[in-house]
Amino acid sequence: MIIQKSDSFIEIGKTLQACLDSENYKEWAKIFSNSKNNAHLDGFINFLSLENSNSILESLGFGDIKEWFYKIDDWSEKIYDPLNNSNPESLILHQLWQHLLNNLIESIRNTKLLGEIPLKGGIICYLDGMSKCAIFKYEIISSYPKFQFIDLIENPLAVFDFWSILDKSDLKQKNVIKEIISSGHKLVYQRGVLIHVDRRKDIGVFGPTIDTILITEILSQQVFENNDNSVTSALEIGCGNGLITVSMAKNCKNLTSIKSIDVDFNSVCCCERNLRANISSYKYGQLNKHIVYGKFNKEIFNTKFDLVVCNPPYIPSIDNSFQNFHNKRDYFQAVVGLDLIDEILLSLSDLLSSNGKLLLLVSSVSLDYTLNKIPEGYQYDFPIKDGFEVIFDVEAVFNNKPLLNYLLLNNGVEERENVYYHKLFPIWISKN
């Protein structure tokens, strides 16, 4: 679980405890009843951070949060029963579920209008500071989506970390999960944003990956939830599917201008489609927005930004590594080297406003290199001090044994039981 103790996290935590102490949940309901304006809030972090959260769940008849999700439909019906005198603990959990459900319904309906998603399929949803990934099956009936909980992945190490639960699932769950994996549609929900990638036409579009999920979680907790009104302009370098761009456009309260750029044309189209599906038509019309197809160059935008975000290629190349790759596309997109990191760090004075910040994500395989490249006059900070360990699953590297051995020998990648791991390091960079 990632907890940055944002302003909102602290206030919501106080409200939650006060509700439990007073046995009155009305103040809690005020926070989460407005689903549209507070879509980015994740109250599951607050609830599951309580020392007695398990005791509360047990008192309601559930062994853990996963069992509660399994029984959510029948349990919710009882909450609405006028003959049932629900206690505050039940109402607090019910409000969390309604907040999530309302946002999922709204997101699916908007995405259906623009993204041509199928009438039924699967959606994966990140909760509790990335510590949980809920898998839902949805079906749109008369334009109204219905949801069925399928399973919960604890501490997922990759966006499609379904393999970790397949062995433990019953036959029905396995069939649904296999349908989601084999579907041509990838639907990922996090912090009020639903990203749709259509594999039939979004060829070559990256993600959402665990990298971008991590970046969005950091932005949510350290920017969106901290009532930071200083961000009026933002830039994402390498927008891919658009999760980060859309999150900034939707949740930076005073944002008036947002720019994005990507070297892949399909990514630019996918990002634009997801942007239109996730923000209101009014806000979409008011935003000064440009999604650019091309290679990053500091002179393209000719302006400075309050917030710049980039998840660059972060795997270093070695001599003659290109010749060992069987798939040139994989090479260019995933392990092209550290050139973009160099270009961005050399462009800081042209990119950042006086109080601007860059959020850059690198790996343990390139952390030292990146820190040594930060120019004088700039400082850096790690929101996650020890990094965030995930599965290292870049197939292009596995096709290149010399490079894989190099990464293993230099302590950037670790192998355990035939699975490779590395650590992700988000870095905040700003002027001294």
Give an overview of the whole structure.
This protein has helices at 7-22, 26-33, 43-49, 53-59, 65-70, 72-80, 88-115, 163-166, 171-182, 210-222, 243-251, 265-278, 281-286, 328-334, 339-346, 348-351, 367-373, 395-398, 401-409, and strands at residues 120-127, 132-141, 144-154, 185-190, 193-198, 233-237, 257-262, 288-293, 305-310, 352-363, 378-381, 388-391, 414-416, 419-431. It is α/β, with parallel strands linked by helices and 432 residues long. Strands 6, 7, 8, 9, 10, 11, 12, 13 and 14 form a nine-stranded mixed beta sheet that branches. Strands 3-2-1-4-5 form a five-stranded mixed beta sheet, sandwiched between helices. It is globular, with a radius of gyration of 22 Å. Residues 322-327 have low confidence and may be disordered.
Give a brief outline of the structure.
With 432 residues, this protein is an alpha/beta fold.
Low-confidence parts, pLDDT < 50 over ≥5 residues?
322-327
Strand tally, please? Answer: 14
Percent of residues in beta strands? 15-25%
What is the rounded distance between the termini? 30 Å
The CATH superfamily of the domain at 211-431 turns out to be: Vaccinia Virus protein VP39
Which shape, going by the Cα principal axes?
globular
What average pLDDT do the residues reach? 88
Structural class: alpha/beta
CATH architecture of the domain at 211-431: 3-Layer(aba) Sandwich
Number of discrete helical segments: 19
Rg result: 22 Å
SSE inventory with pairings:
Blueprint: H1 7-22, H2 26-33, H3 43-49, H4 53-59, H5 65-70, H6 72-80, H7 88-115, E1 120-127, E2 132-141, E3 144-154, H8 163-166, H9 171-182, E4 185-190, E5 193-198, H10 210-222, E6 233-237, H11 243-251, E7 257-262, H12 265-278, H13 281-286, E8 288-293, E9 305-310, H14 328-334, H15 339-346, H16 348-351, E10 352-363, H17 367-373, E11 378-381, E12 388-391, H18 395-398, H19 401-409, E13 414-416, E14 419-431
Parallel strand pairs: 1-4, 6-7, 6-9, 7-8, 9-10
Antiparallel strand pairs: 1-2, 2-3, 4-5, 10-14, 11-14, 12-14, 13-14
Helix pairs in contact: 1-2, 1-3, 2-7, 7-12, 10-11, 11-12
